[in-house]
Amino acid sequence: MFDRLFNILKANLNNALEKDEFNAGDKTVDEIYAEYLRTVKEEEAKTPPNNFQQTYHHQTPPKPQWTSEELEAFKTLEVNAGADFDQIKVSYKTLIKKYHPDKFHNEPTKYKAALELSQKINRAFDIIEKKYGK
User: Fold this and answer.
1) How many Å apart are CA 121 and CA 123, to the nearest integer?
2) Which long-range contacts (CB under 8 A, 24 or more apart) does 44-53 make?
3) Distance of alpha carbon 109 from the chain centroid
4) How many domains does one find in the chain?
5) Same domain flag for 50 and 24
6) Does the model's pTM come out above 0.85?
7) Residue 62: inside a domain
8) pLDDT tens column, 70-113
9) In terms of DSSP H, where are the helices of the chain?
10) Do residues 81 and 126 share a domain?
11) How many CB atoms lie within 10 A of CB 2?
């Protein structure tokens, strides 16, 4: 890619030199290009990188590490690990409405199961809420 870019730049500089649009003195195109590269490298050395993305734009930032407890909480809330907090909240509210113990007050076995499940959902949401700092 850089060879092709260099050839395009070289052709443009040659055209400019032939038409006297560019005053290079006695320098050749290769010398002009080498000088340009040297000045670019000097400028890069002078300016410190602003952030990770600018310095290492070809690398992706590391993924957040989730504990097994947090992964289990995501699974309980039926969302993917690292999901948006708003999406997590929607899933939490949907599950709580679906499995709320008050819906099963006439059936003791289902009430007990719903009570345990709603407590598990609440614990999972608390874990994720702490992780997201909300």
Assistant:
1) 5
2) none
3) 45
4) 2
5) yes
6) no
7) no
8) 999 999 999 998 888 999 999 999 999 998 989 888 888 989 99
9) 2-18, 29-46, 52-55, 68-76, 85-98, 108-132
10) yes
11) 6
